[in-house]
Amino acid sequence: MRKQVLVLSTLFLSLTVFGQKSELKTADKAIKSKDYVAAMAAIKQAEALIENADQKTKAKFYYLKGKAIYQDGAESVDVLKVGDAFNALIDYENEIKSSKYSSEFGEILNKLINDIAAKASSSYSLAIQTKEAADYISAAKKFHQVFSLSPRDTSFLDNAALVYYFGKDYETSKNLYEKLLELNYTGITTIYKATNKEDGKDITFNDKKAMDLQVKLGIVENPREEAKDSRREFIFKNLAQNYSALEDNAKALEVIADGRAEFTESYSLLIDEANIHYKLGDTDKFKEKLEEAITINPTDPTLYYNVGVMNMDQKNIDEAIKYFEKAIELKPDYGDAYNNIGAAIIEKVNPIIEEMNKSLSDFDKYDRLQAEQLEVYKEAIPYYEKAYELDGENISIIQTLMGLYENLDMTEKADELRPIYKKLKG
C-alpha cells in the first residue's frame, strides 16, 4: 500500500511539473506575439503550481511574469507593478546566485528609472512655478514610481513624501514618512564632486570610481567627498506636520516627542511642538515651549516677541515689556515690538481709570489720578512714534498716536497725522 501511495505521489508531481512548463511555454509564446492578456492568464495558471518548482523553472516564471506585466514598455503599463515584478526576479536570482535573466531586467529597470526620475524632476520644476497642488501630486507620483522600481534608492521615497505634502495629499505623505522611519532611513550619503577643467564648474558623480576615472583622464580636478547630513530630524518634523494637517494633533505631538528623544537639541521640533499647543489653544504650554526654545536659540528676536505677547495676554505687563525690549535689542527695527511696548504701557492706565471712575466726587483725587494717566500716555508715545517711523502706513498705529497726542493737547502733532490717517482710511 505504501508503495502504491509513493507511485501516485510521484505521478502527481510529474503532472504538476508538466503543467508548470506547459503554462510557461504558453505564456512565452503569447509574449512573443504581444498577446499580454493571454500571457497573464497562463502566468496565473502557472502561479498556482510554482511553489514546488525547481530553481530554473521558478526563475523563468518570474522572468515571464515581469515581461508580461512590462508589455514591452507600453504607455498604459503600471510602473509600480513592473517594479515589483522585476525586483522579485532580481531578488530571487540573487538568492540562487544566478544572473540568467537579471541582466536583461536590470538594463530595462535602469532605463525606466532614469526616464521616470528625469520626468519627476521636470514635473517638480513645473510645480514650483505653478504652485498647483495637482502638479505637485504628479511629480510626487513619479518620485514614488522611481522608488518602486528601485527600493534601494530611498531618497526618492523621501522626495515623494515631501512633494505629496506640498500637494496637500497629507495622508499619502504621512504613510511614506512612516515607511521611511520603518526603514531606518537617514538620508546620510556621500557626494562625489570634482571641478571641470574646461569651464570651472563642479560635476557630481554617482560613485568614487567614476570620479577617479575622470581625474585620471585629466578631465576634472579637485576631487572631493561631501557627506549629506541626516534627514531623520526632518522626517519626524514633516510627519508631525502631516498629522497636524489631518487634525490628529495628539499623534503629531507623539511623533515630535519621538523625534525630540532622538534629537534632544532640535530647535525646529520644539517650535513645531509649541505651535501645535498654540493651535490647540493651550497658551500656557505654548509660552512654556517658547521659553524653552529661548534656551536653545537665545538670539531669535521672534521668540522673545511671542513670549511677550503671551505675557500680555496673561496680564503680566512688566514681563511682557521685558521680552519686547529684548526682541528690540536683537532686532532694532522690530516695529511690532515697539508697538506692543506702547500697548503694554497703556495697559497700565486701566486701574487708574477704574479708580478715577470711583472718585468722580473727589476732585483733588480725580485730578491727581488724571495726571498719572497722562504721564503713562507720555511714556507710551516714544514707542508708538518709533513704530510709526518703521511702518508709516499702519493705520492702527497712526490712530493710537493721534489719540495720545489729543489727550496730551499736542494739537500740532495730531494735525500732522490727520491727513495721513484720512488718506489711508480712504
List the helices and strands and how they pair.
Layout lengths: L1 H31 L3 H12 L7 H16 L8 H17 L6 H29 L2 H17 L4 H13 L3 H13 L7 E7 L5 E4 L2 H9 L3 E8 L4 H14 L3 H14 L4 H13 L3 H14 L4 H13 L3 H14 L4 H13 L1 H10 L4 H28 L4 H13 L3 H15 L1
Antiparallel strand pairs: 1-2, 1-3
Helix pairs in contact: 1-2, 1-3, 2-3, 3-4, 4-5, 5-6, 6-7, 7-8, 8-10, 10-11, 10-12, 11-12, 12-13, 13-14, 14-15, 15-16, 16-18, 17-18, 18-19, 19-20
Key traits:
single chain; 426 residues; mainly alpha; Serine Threonine Protein Phosphatase 5, Tetratricopeptide repeat; 3-stranded antiparallel sheet; 20 helices; 3 strands; disordered N terminus
Brief synopsis:
This protein is mainly α and 426 residues long. It has 20 helices and three strands.
Question: What does this protein structure show overall?
Answer:
The chain has a three-stranded antiparallel beta sheet with strand order 2-1-3, with helices on one face. Mean pLDDT is 89; it is low at 1-19. Helix content is 75%, strand content 4%. Among the domains are: 190-227, no CATH class; 299-425, Tetratricopeptide repeat domain (Serine Threonine Protein Phosphatase 5, Tetratricopeptide repeat). Helix 1 runs parallel beside helix 3 and helix 16 (335-347) packs antiparallel against helix 18 (363-390). The chain is mostly helical. It is built from 20 helices and three strands. The radius of gyration is 35 Å and the shape is elongated.
* Proportion in β-strands: under 5%
Please give the order of strands in the largest beta sheet: 2-1-3
Average pLDDT, all residues: 89
What is the share of helical residues? Answer: over 70%
Q: Tell me the major beta sheet.
A: 3 strands, antiparallel
CATH architecture of the domain at 299-425: Alpha Horseshoe
CATH topology of the domain at 299-425: Serine Threonine Protein Phosphatase 5, Tetratricopeptide repeat
What is the gyration radius calculated from CA atoms? 35 Å
Q: Roughly how many Å apart are the termini?
A: 107 Å
- Give me the CATH superfamily of the domain at 299-425: Tetratricopeptide repeat domain
Number of helices: 20
Question: What general outline do the C-alpha atoms trace?
Answer: elongated
**Helix vs. strand class:** mainly alpha
**CATH class division of the domain at 299-425:** Mainly Alpha
List unreliable stretches of 5+ residues: 1-19
Order of helices and strands: HHHHHHHHEEHEHHHHHHHHHHH
User: What is the strand tally?
Assistant: 3
